[in-house]
Design goal:
The chain has helices at residues 58-64, 69-73, 143-146, 417-421; strands at residues 35-36, 44-45, 52-57, 79-83, 91-95, 103-107, 110-111, 132-139, 153-159, 166-176, 180-190, 194-208, 223-237, 242-257, 265-282, 285-301, 308-325, 329-344, 347-365, 370-381, 385-396, 402-413, 437-449, 455-473, 490-511, 516-528, 541-552, 555-565, 575-587, 590-597, 616-624. The chain is mainly beta. The strands form 4 sheets. It has a 22-stranded antiparallel β-barrel. A 5-stranded mixed beta sheet has the order 3-8-9-6-7. The protein has a two-stranded antiparallel sheet with strand order 1-2. Residues 1-30 have low confidence and may be disordered. Pfam families: Plug (PF07715), TonB_dep_Rec_b-barrel (PF00593). This is Vitamin B12 transporter. Residues 177-599 form the TonB-dependent receptor-like beta-barrel domain.
Length: 625
C-alpha cells in the first residue's frame, strides 16, 4: 500500500486559496476539518456523526506535498492503496479491505467511477493533488444515501475555492527525480454574490518500469506519464434565497505501461465532468436541483491488432431537500436518476442501465449529548429490479471530550457491464444471470480529545458481503458452478456464502512540544472469502507515523514512516518506507519545498511483480498573491 508520508452540494465553508482573515471576537468559528458533509448529505459537526470519517485539508495536502492524491489517502486509518508501477499506472484505493468497486468516488459532486471497468471503480493513478482543497473519506456502507458502489465507503474530493474578497492566485512548480515536472496555477475571485475559480495543472515524468523484479532491474524501460488538467467553478447568489452554480473539470492523460502483448504499451485517457445546480432556501427548508455528466474515453495501444477502446458516460439528475423541524429534528430527502452507458472493443453495440432512487433521512438530537440518524432508500435498476438499503447511526457524548459512536447499514452493488457481457477474445463467457451483491456493515467507535491537545480514535468494524460476484474457471482457484458454453474458459458468477472483512482502526495525534507533533494510524484487517481464504492485497497490519516539526523560524519539516506486514501469500514481503518533506517560508506568501521519497532506498513492491520508486528528490516553489 502506497504510504508516502464531496460534498454532493457544497462544503459549508470554502477552501482557501489565500489565508483567511481573522474572525471577529464574537464569532464562533468551527475548524474546516470539524465540518462533515458526506455523512448525512448536509453539513454536520464531526462530533455529531455516527460513522467513521477522515478529512484532509489544504494544509494537510501541502504538508505532504505528494504528487498523487492516493499517497495522501493511504495515510488515513482504514484506507490502503496499491499501485502497479509509477504515476499513471493502475492505482487502487481500498476501504476496510474492500475492493475498489465498493468505493464510490466523487470530484466536486460528480461521480467518477468508470462503468467500463471489470467492476465500476476509479483509477487513482493519474489523479494528482493539483487544485484539490479538501478530501472527505467516509468509511462504512453508505448505500442508504448514495446508492450502489458505496458499500465500503466514499471518497469525496473538493477543489480549492477562494475566501479572500477580490482576486487571489496561487502558483506551484516542482521538479526532481525521474525528470519529473509539476506545474499548477489556481485563480479565484470572491465578491458579495459571486464566487469563481480556475485551476490548471500539468504533470510530466519519465517514471520507472512498471513491471520489475526484486531486487530492481535497472535495464528495464521506464514508463512515463503526461497529464494536463483544467478545472473551474462558478457560484452566484441570484437573490438572498436563490443560488446557482457550475463545477466542471477535464483531463487528458498519456501513460506508458507494460502490456500483455508488448512492454512499451500506451494508454490515452480523456475524461470530463460537469455539474450544474441551483439551491433555493425557503422557510425552514433548502431545496437543491442538480444535473451532472461524466464522460471517459480510454484507448489502449499495446501491439495487438487495432486498439482496445473503452467509452463510458454517466448522466445524473437529482433533487435534495433539507428541512429543519424546530432545533432538534432535521429531515433530508430526495430523488436521483442515473443513466450509465458503456461501449468497448469487445462490446461494440454497447450497454446501458438506469437506476432511480428515492431516499429519506431523519436526524434527531434526542438530547444535547445524543444524536441519532436513520436513513432509508429504495432503488430501481432497469436491469435488476428493486432494492432497499438503510443505515442507523448514533453518537453519544458522555463528556465534553469523549464521543461514542456506532452504525449499522445495508447496501447493494449491481453487476457491471463487463461482468454481464464477458469478453470473447479472452474466453470469458457472458453472464446474464448475475444477481446484485448485498452487504451488511457494523462499526463501533470512540473518539477522545484530551486537554493537552492530544486525540485518540478507535473503531471496530465488520463488513459482510453476500452473493459476491467472483471470477471462475481456467487459471483461477475456483471451479464454475454452471457449465461453460463451448469455446469459453471462464466467467463471472455469484458465489454463495458470506465474504467478511473485520478489523480495528486506531488513529492518534499528540503535541510533543510547542514545535513537535506526532500523528499516526494503524489498521488491522482480516479479509476473507466465503471459503475462509484471505483476500489478496489486504495485509493484516497497515501502520503510518508522521512527525511534524517547526525546525527553526520559517522552516518546517515532516518525517513519515509506513509499515506493511502480514501480507497474504503471493503478495510479497513486509516492508517499511520512510519519506521526508521540508518547507522554507521565504516570505508570508512564498515557500520553497523539498521532498524525499523512499529516503532509505528500500527495495519493495506494493503489487507483486510491479516496481516502486527508488530514493527520489523533488524541489519546488509555492507562491500566493
Amino acid at each position: 500500500m502506497r504510504k508516502t508520508g464531496i460534498s454532493m452540494i457544497a462544503l459549508v465553508a470554502a477552501i482557501p486559496i489565500q489565508t483567511v482573515a481573522e474572525p471577529a471576537e464574537d464569532e464562533t468559528v468551527i475548524p474546516l476539518d470539524r465540518i462533515i458533509v458526506t455523512a448525512n448529505r448536509t453539513e454536520t459537526s464531526a462530533n455529531r456523526v455516527g460513522s467513521a470519517v477522515a478529512v484532509l485539508t489544504s494544509e494537510d495536502l501541502d504538508a505532504g506535498g505528494d504528487l498523487l492524491l492516493a499517497d495522501q489517502l493511504s495515510r488515513l486509518p482504514g484506507v490502503s492503496t496499491t499501485a502497479s508501477g509509477p504515476a499513471g499506472s493502475a492505482t487502487e484505493v481500498r476501504i476496510r479491505g474492500a475492493a475498489p468497486r465498493y468505493v464510490a468516488v466523487f470530484v466536486d459532486g460528480i461521480r467518477v467511477d468508470d462503468p467500463t471497468n471489470i467492476a465500476p471503480s476509479f483509477d487513482f493513478g493519474s489523479l494528482t493533488g493539483v487544485g484539490v482543497g479538501r478530501v472527505e473519506v467516509l468509511r462504512g456502507t453508505q448505500s442508504a444515501l448514495y446508492g450502489g458502489s458505496a458499500v465500503a465507503g466514499i471518497v469525496s474530493v473538493q477543489s480549492l475555492r477562494p475566501v479572500s474578497e477580490g482576486f487571489s492566485q496561487r502558483i506551484q512548480v516542482e521538479g526532481g527525480s525521474y525528470n519529473t515536472r509539476r506545474l499548477a496555477y489556481d485563480l479565484g475571485y470572491l465578491s458579495d454574490r459571486l464566487e469563481a475559480r480556475l485551476s490548471l495543472g500539468h504533470v510530466k515524468s519519465d517514471g520507472f518500469s512498471a513491471v520489475d523484479t526484486l531486487p530492481r532491474d535497472p535495464s528495464l524501460d521506464s514508463d512515463g506519464i503526461e497529464a494536463n488538467r483544467l478545472g473551474f467553478g462558478l457560484r452566484y447568489d441570484l437573490t438572498d434565497e436563490m443560488v446557482v452554480g457550475l463545477d466542471a473539470f477535464g483531463q487528458r492523460t498519456t501513460a506508458d505501461y507494460d502490456g500483455w502483448w508488448q512492454e512499451d504499451a500506451v494508454q490515452k485517457r480523456h475524461e470530463a465532468g460537469a455539474r450544474l445546480y441551483a439551491e433555493w432556501a425557503h422557510g425552514a427548508s433548502v431545496h437543491t436541483f442538480e444535473v451532472s455528466r461524466y464522460e471517459l474515453d480510454r484507448d489502449l495501444f499495446e501491439g495487438a491488432p487495432g486498439a482496445d477502446f473503452y467509452h463510458s458516460t454517466r448522466t445524473t439528475f437529482g433533487y435534495k431537500g433539507v428541512t429543519d423541524v424546530g432545533t432538534r429534528l432535521q429531515f433530508v430527502y430526495g430523488v436521483d436518476s442515473m443513466r450509465e452507458t458503456g461501449r468497448t472493443a469487445g462490446m461494440v453495440d454497447g450497454m446501458d442501465a438506469r437506476t432511480t432512487g428515492l431516499y429519506g433521512q431523519a436526524q434527531w438530537a434526542a438530547t444535547s449529548d445524543l444524536d441519532l440518524s436513520l436513513a432509508v432508500r429504495g432503488d430501481h435498476n432497469s436491469e435488476f429490479g428493486n432494492f432497499a438499503s438503510g443505515r442507523l447511526s448514533g453518537v453519544w457524548r458522555p463528556t465534553e471530550t469523549l464521543a461514542l459512536r456506532g452504525a449499522v447499514a445495508r447496501g447493494f452493488l449491481a453487476p457491471s457491464f463487463y461482468q454481464r457481457a464477458g469478453a470473447a477474445e479472452w474466453g470469458i463467457a457472458p453472464a446474464s444471470d448475475l444477481d446484485p451483491e448485498r452487504s451488511l456493515s457494523y462499526e463501533l467507535g470512540a473518539d477522545l480529545d484530551l486537554a493537552s491537545g492530544a486525540s485518540v480514535g478507535l473503531t471496530f468494524f465488520q463488513l459482510e458481503i453476500d452473493n459476491a460476484i467472483t471470477y471462475c474457471g481456467k487459471f483461477t482457484s475456483l471451479t464454475c458452478d454452471s457449465e461453460l458454453p463451448d469455446g469459453f474458459t471462464n466467467r463471472y458468477e455469484n458465489r454463495e456464502g458470506l465474504s467478511r472483512n473485520r478489523g480495528v482502526e486506531l488513529e492518534a495525534s499528540v503535541p510533543l512540544t510547542e514545535r513537535l507533533s506526532l500523528a499516526g494510524s494503524y489498521t488491522y484487517t482480516d479479509a476473507r472469502d466465503p471459503s475462509g481464504n484471505r483476500r489478496s492485497r489486504v495485509p493484516y497490519h497497515d501502520a503510518s507515523l508522521t512527525l511534524q516539526a517547526a525546525l527553526v523560524e520559517d522552516v518546517s519539516g515532516q518525517l513519515g514512516l509506513t509499515h506493511i506486514s502480514g501480507r497474504p501469500t503471493g503478495d510479497g514481503d513486509s516492508f517499511t518506507v520512510v519519506n521526508a518533506a521540508l518547507a522554507w517560508d521565504l516570505a508570508l506568501d512564498t515557500s520553497v519545498t523539498l521532498r524525499l521519497e523512499n529516503l532509505l532506498d528500500k527495495s519493495y513492491q506494493e503489487v507483486a511483480g510491479y516496481g516502486t520508486s527508488e530514493r527520489a528528490v523533488y524541489v519546488g516553489l509555492r507562491k500566493s498573491f
